[in-house]
Design a protein that fits this description.
By secondary structure, the protein is mainly alpha-helical. The chain has one domain. The protein is 69% helix and 0% strand. The protein is built from 4 helices and no strands. Helix 2 (31-56) runs antiparallel to helix 3 (62-91). It starts with 7 loop residues before the first helix and ends with a helix. Keywords: Cell membrane, Electron transport, Heme, Iron, Membrane, Metal-binding, Transmembrane, Transmembrane helix, Transport. Pfam families: Ni_hydr_CYTB (PF01292). It comes from Pararobbsia alpina. Its main location: membrane. Residues 29-116 form the Cytochrome b561 bacterial/Ni-hydrogenase domain.
Length: 118
Amino acid sequence: MRARKVRRSDLVETLTMQQPLAAQSARKYTRTAMAFHWLIAALIVWGFAIGWVMTDIPGFTPAKLRYFSWHKWIGVTVLVLALARLAWRAFNRPPALPEAMHDWEKLAAHLGHVALLS
């Protein structure tokens, strides 16, 4: 008995149908992913600014302690949001890189993300 030759289009269609919707590549990032991204980015900038101001305050004053506390809690909030973002990313695939990108650009993007996660 001879094996039937499988066409590539049949294989792609079968694989696409068997994957759950969340596993299929999206066309763009979800609103939730974008909200996580910009909220974390804003908190990092805010925490950096507070840290910068805090180091210029001389001595051990109540204002410096207040800024130190804010800086610390911004960092903790960024950590919690980053963990929530990773959990979201585990169940919601990001969009594929554009076809027009060169291979070296795709590699650079991938290495940049690996560097951020390490």
